[in-house]
């Protein structure tokens, strides 16, 4: 706050204006800091969501690939080692069960991969997009606060220049009076 | 004059010695306004030097982060390309090769069982049609040609069903084809895992690029703040100079007025 304490009403008015400007500038600085903090947090959230999406994608790929591989292995093993009765396409005994299980696993692998990998990954990417939008909003707020702050500084300069002119005029008047006494 | 000397001292290089002779003289001045201006100039020089150092440091960091961002984006692009490549491999193994093996196995089973497995003819046609759809869409072949090929394949399968004498050999062919299909599926699954790894790497690289972008924005902010600090310092100095100039001017006007008054009195 200003501590000029002049008895001149114009200077007092200017002082009040400067005080008000100073308060507004402080509010803008707080807003700027808060918006920057918010932007930083939103960006951190976005980065974390993208890393989670990456982990989900990998987990889904491993599950899908693992299930498919296991299914393929079961099918191939049953074909190679199983005993086929006459006119049958499925080996007898345990190999038959293994072959059918392998086929089922192969069919299930893609939906499993989507369930464990693709769907959560898409969710995470949607979260990342939302966080990106939040960061963008915060950035806009920060830019607005900065511009407002700049405007206040210019206004303060103008007010100070006006006060200086007033004081200068008064001083010149006083000296003129002294000279003429 | 001391004021002019101070003004020239204010615009020195950032590494200028703060306590140089001009400022020391000004600080020792008996005129309080000049001494105050000298004090403010010293403080201003320190602020300016700090701001300039900060600007240089932020600039360097921004450059580093720009490089990091570029490299992360490049990594993401490469990982995406690799994922695409392994995805195609996976499709070829799991789609085309496995389907062809399946068709061969089905045809061989029909022949091997002496045509008894009539429903398999349908399976053969279905498999053939699925291949037609896949291969046709990938290679841009005329779907009619592919359809004709698949129907012909089905007919061959039916005809093969009458070759009872060769049933054991056909059964072996069917088993080998089925095993090959399993092998192709295993290959496809391996390629799918690698594809997933690369997709994950691409996402991680994108996250790294985002992180670098965020840090770059922070340093941009600090750079702007340093610029504002420089601007503030220049503004404060200008105000101080104006104030001291006004004080000196007032003093001079006062002296003139007193002299004029004395002249008038005498």
Structure, described:
The complex is a heterodimer of chains A (181) and B (266). Chain A is an all-alpha fold and 181 residues long. Chain A has helices at residues 9-81, 94-180. Chain A contains two helices and no strands. Chain B is mainly alpha-helical and 266 residues long. The longest helix of chain B has 99 residues, at 167-265. Chains A and B meet through helix 1 and helix 2 of A and helix 6 of B.
Please mark out the parts of chain A with pLDDT under 50 across 5 or more consecutive residues, or reply none.
none
Q: What's the count of strands of chain B?
A: 0
Average pLDDT value of chain B?
75
**Can you give the helix content of chain B as a percent range?**
over 70%
Q: How many helices of chain B?
A: 6
Distance between the termini of chain B: 33 Å
* Beta strand % of chain A: under 5%
Main sheet specs of chain A: none
Estimate percent helicity of chain A: over 70%
How would you describe this structure in keywords?
heterodimer; A: 181 residues; mainly alpha; 2 helices; 88% helix; 0% strand; B: 266 residues; 6 helices
What is this entry, summarized?
The complex is a heterodimer of chains A (181) and B (266). With 181 residues, chain A is an all-alpha fold.
Question: How would the blueprint of this fold be written?
Answer:
The complex is a heterodimer of chains A (181) and B (266).
Chain A: H1 9-81, H2 94-180
Helix pairs in contact in A: 1-2
Chain B: H1 2-10, H2 21-27, H3 32-112, H4 119-139, H5 143-160, H6 167-265
Helix pairs in contact in B: 1-2, 1-3, 2-3, 3-4, 3-5, 3-6, 4-5
